[in-house]
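User: I'm writing a short report section on ligand binding and want a predicted complex to refer to. Could you take this sequence and iron/sulfur cluster and write out the structure as tokens? A short remark afterwards would be nice.
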Amino acid sequence: MVFSPSNMKKSTFLKLKMREASFISRALLSSRHPVLAHLIPMRRCNLACGYCNEYDHTSKPIDLDIIQKRLNKLADLGTSIVTISGGEPMMHPELDQIIHHIRVRGMIAGLISNGYYFTPDRIKRLNKAGLEYLQISIDNVEPDEVSRKSLRVLDKKLRYLSEYADFHVNINSVIGGGIKNPDDALTVARRAVELGFSTTVGVIHDIDGTLKPLSATEKDIFQQVKKLGNKDHARLNWFQDSIAEGKAYQWRCRAGARYLYICEDGLVHWCSQQKGYPGIPLDQYTMEDFDREYKTEKWCAPTCTLQCVHQVGILDNWRDPQKTPAQIAEEQKGGVGEMIGAD
Ligand code: SF4
Ligand code: SF4
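Assistant: Sure. The structure tokens for the complex follow:
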């Protein structure tokens, strides 16, 4: 997560920049704490995007006291940033208290939303709760059968945010993956900049999950959107240039350690795309689990498009080479064998 000037008050922006600098120094000095956790307080969503497998229309919000316990555990592990995601987290009736608790425990508070629920009053309440950054992904200009996260539907909400939000707002657009009108990404990015927000662009896989090079038109638009966007973000996302060419990218994914994905059931997963690994309840998560996952090479890394996990990975890419799960299991067996032998 790298923040840049936006709609925020100058004083709030400077405070956030100082906190960002301090968490980056801390992360470089020590690799033994999580940098970013995504926490899901409810799976329910008001939309049903055609490509999404992360929502339902019926589940209930997780109780505030349970969420607070999970946040306390993340703080105790030394986590720097907590981003609330979903489903649609704005549907959680106690979202403000959740945000406030993140701040009380000294962590940076972020939110990922589809943007539908922002009104002037709701934005002012989020200011008061202490929200520090918000990301909205906009998929197209006009709604279609795949996505209603559309500029035309959301423009009024973006104007409210531009006027009232005292937190950083980033608008993410997408390219590739058979998106019908690649030009839409540029229209979305231009509108974001016009309203004083930062903007990023995500290159996505084809609908069947394969990595295909972008077409010449898509590449051109991708470069134009990158130029309009957050320069720090573009520098950190050089992996996207490989993905745009349809090529695999070598990096060290530190999911399960420096990045944590906590589902609504309170289990730790590598990320939204790799649920079930390691699948351990957060309240039982130890530094032993953290160390194992930090060292584990992820088989899905070369074609991964998850921008925030890549950004976290950069902090440690230069140190601590990883091993395959089989090598780690072998090592652990050796360790136990030696201990038994010693006894
Ligand atoms: S808004 Fe987000 S969570 Fe909801 S269906 Fe679309 S992508 Fe999934
Ligand atoms: S490489 Fe990507 S998909 Fe695989 S665990 Fe890491 S973040 Fe998840």
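A remark for your report: Strands lie at 36-39, 81-84, 108-113, 133-138, 168-176, 198-204, 259-262, 267-269, 278-281. The chain is about 40% helix and 15% strand.
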